[in-house]
Automatic annotation (TrEMBL):
Enzyme Commission code: 2.8.1.7
Class in the EC hierarchy, top level: transferase
Domain Aminotransferase class V: 4-364
Protein name, entry field: cysteine desulfurase
Species name: Halobacillus seohaensis
Reaction(s) catalysed (UniProt annotation): (sulfur carrier)-H + L-cysteine = (sulfur carrier)-SH + L-alanine
Keywords: Iron, Iron-sulfur, Metal-binding, Pyridoxal phosphate, Transferase
Gene3D superfamilies according to UniProt: 1.10.260.50, Aspartate Aminotransferase, domain 1, Type I PLP-dependent aspartate aminotransferase-like (Major domain)
Length: 379
């Protein structure tokens, strides 16, 4: 029985061309990019080329790209780093209750340091509203952090509208774009966001690397202490082979963006159509009109997340109840609780299915068929 992977929002398989790009670096380029001799200069050249590629992908300047260990570190550096560096201007931060835990736990830490945090309300369509930001923002607000695409529901937030509210304000605007990067043409010259977090392993690159875009002029404190790498913003020797893999993954998603989006949109519809054809009772969580083609979050009435995921896995189908960082947790989804209210059945009967490189129309349809049979047996 073929195992079918429908959990690309958790992590993606590394593209073959990414692996091929990394291997020569592992074998031949072992110098430290900070070293001045020829071995170091060779590594530095490769690192600079990757930084150029990353910057071009979001129409940024190379000096605005800081390589990190991934989305979590990027979120922490952006949120804690900017808050600490600007606390003399105020100690008020605005976010949403549906952020990734890398953001939520970062602002929780800031609360222990005397910062005040306000949360934008989230509506049943899975989105926040600019009008609420206008009401909540204050003179002493120094940071607004809202993810571009929610990792559990795939719902796209109104980032442009939110950025307009902040544009003439002192507050920095940070967005975790981990689930959005590669799907959209993000232009930092047009979109006034000061800080953006990206992760390599969500775009078929290697785990353990990512980047933080820091708009020129943005002030933030480093959260690691050591050498002067990454323009003194992120101490530690850069992971050159992984960054080269990340660079190749960036090139691939850029080259194939339009074709891939159409493919994933089709796969998502095939999956929903197959469940409908089998007369499965389900509801889609969030607005389909404001969702990415790679993610759909479905509520199955009178079902239980743990039971469903266990049975799906036994049937060779990999899915998730939400963020991979909380896999195994029996607590209700914090995202769906924010959308529908604490205690609502959807918070404990919903599954996230996410599509990507490992999928074809045939295996998505087969996965839907297996899932349908399980749901019928359990009902």
């Amino acid at each position: 029985m073929e195992s079918i992977y429908l959990d690309h929002a958790a992590t993606t398989p590394v593209h073959r061309q990414v692996t091929e790009a990394m291997m020569p670096v592992y074998q031949d380029v072992f110098g430290n990019p900070s070293s001045v001799h020829q071995f170091g200069r060779k590594a530095r050249k490769i690192l600079d080329e990757a930084r150029h590629t990353a910057a071009q992908s979001i129409h940024a300047n190379e000096k605005e790209i800081v390589f990190t260990s991934g989305g979590t570190e990027s979120d922490n550096l952006a949120i804690i780093g900017s808050a600490m560096a600007n606390r003399q201007k105020g100690k008020h931060i605005i976010t949403t209750p549906i952020e990734h835990h890398a953001t939520l736990h970062a602002v929780d830490y800031l609360k222990t340091q005397g910062f005040e945090v306000s949360y934008l309300p989230v509506y049943e369509d899975g989105r926040v509203k600019a009008k609420d930001l206008r009401q909540i923002i204050r003179d002493d607000t120094i940071l607004v952090t809202v993810m571009m695409v929610n990792n559990e529901t795939g719902i796209i937030q109104p980032i442009e509208e939110l950025s307009e509210v902040i544009q003439e304000h002192q507050a920095y605007f940070h967005s975790d774009i981990v689930q959005a990067y590669g799907l959209f043409n993000i232009d930092t010259k047009q979109l006034p966001i000061d800080l953006m977090s990206v992760s390599s392993h969500k775009i078929n690159g290697p785990k353990g690397t990512g980047l933080l875009y820091i708009r020129e002029g943005t002030v933030l404190d480093s959260q690691q202490f050591g050498g002067e790498q990454e323009r003194k913003r992120r101490a530690g020797t850069e992971n050159v082979p992984a960054i080269v893999g990340f660079e190749k993954a960036i090139q691939l998603v850029k080259e194939n963006r339009s074709e891939s989006n159409e493919k994933y949109k089709h796969l998502k519809q095939v999956f929903i159509n197959e469940l409908t054809k089998e007369s499965i009772d389900f509801d889609i969580n969030g607005s389909m009109d404001h969702s990415v083609p790679t993610i759909v979050n479905l509520s199955f009435p009178n079902m239980n997340v743990e039971t469903l995921l266990t049975n799906f896995d036994l049937a060779g189908v990999a899915a998730s109840s939400g963020s991979a960082c909380t896999a195994g947790s029996i607590e209700p989804s914090h995202v769906l609780s924010a959308m529908f209210g604490d205690g609502e059945a959807r918070t404990t009967n919903s599954i996230r299915f996410s599509f990507g490189l490992a999928n074809t129309e045939e295996n998505v349809a087969e996965a839907a068929n297996r899932i349908s049979q399980i749901l019928k047996r359990l009902s």
